Amino acid sequence: MLKDPIAAITEFIFLETPISNADIILIPGGSHPQLMERAAELYHCGLAPVILPSGGANAHLPGLTEWAYLKQVGVSLGIPEGAFLKEDEARHTFENAELSWKAIRRAALEVRAAILVCKAFHARRVHMAYSAAFPEHVLFMVSPVHDERNIRRDNWFTSELGIRKVMDEVEKIGRYFDPHQIVKEAKAT
């Protein structure tokens, strides 16, 4: 029997996992302070000693990269400058993942577990991108946030914006990943 399509899309896109201690908190870019607010909360709870926001230029942040903006927010929330790694060139989610891994290697940081802090409707694509770019042994936990648009698993299908954002994610996943990567992801979750 076919599953309700809204329920199937919701289950796939809105990934959230239990959170426990990790080696690093990863933020795949953005211009929304809620991302760093959640990362700061996790950091201050002692769940990870390092935060790596990722992201280059963003039209919504004139004169700042996403990395610089998110770092500013983090410092204003009491995170010490030394807790940040830097990646300020990524232009999209897959580059966030690839260039974050390069930054981690440059810092000679051993990562076995990482917390991904991302927008709720971006969670599946973020998880898939980071899983593809990082070594297979790295465990990813997903801590989604809601920005001012408040697009959540229980309401995305009730507004034109929510439908557009979620269906854009479905389309981007189709473009980002070949069928073999999707099968690998499905087996891992």
Outline the structure in words.
The chain has a four-stranded parallel beta sheet with strand order 2-1-3-4, sandwiched between helices. The longest helix is centred in the last third of the chain and has 17 residues, at 160-176. The protein has helices at residues 5-13, 33-44, 66-76, 93-106, 123-133, 160-176, 179-188, and strands spanning 24-27, 51-53, 113-119, 139-145. It has a domain at 20-147: Rossmann fold, CATH 3.40.50. Helix 5 (123-133) packs parallel to helix 6 (160-176). The protein has seven helices and four strands. The protein is of the alpha/beta class and 189 residues long.
Biggest sheet strand order reads 2-1-3-4
How much helicity do the residues have?
A: 40-55%
Count of helical stretches:
7
CATH topology group of the domain at 20-147 = Rossmann fold
Spatial shape: globular
**Unreliable runs:** none
Instruction: Based on the coordinates given, report the CATH architecture of the domain at 20-147.
Output: 3-Layer(aba) Sandwich
Question: Helix/strand/pairing class, anyone?
Answer: alpha/beta
CATH first level of the domain at 20-147: which class? Alpha Beta
Topology order in helix (H) and strand (E) letters? HEHEHHEHEHH
Q: What is the average per-residue confidence, as pLDDT, rounded to a whole number?
A: 93
Strand content: 5-15%
The largest sheet, given as strand count, sense and whether it forms a barrel, is: 4 strands, parallel
The CATH superfamily label of the domain at 20-147 reads HUPs
Task: Compute the separation of the termini in Å.
Answer: 22 Å
- Please tell me how large the radius of gyration is: 16 Å
Number of E-type strands: 4
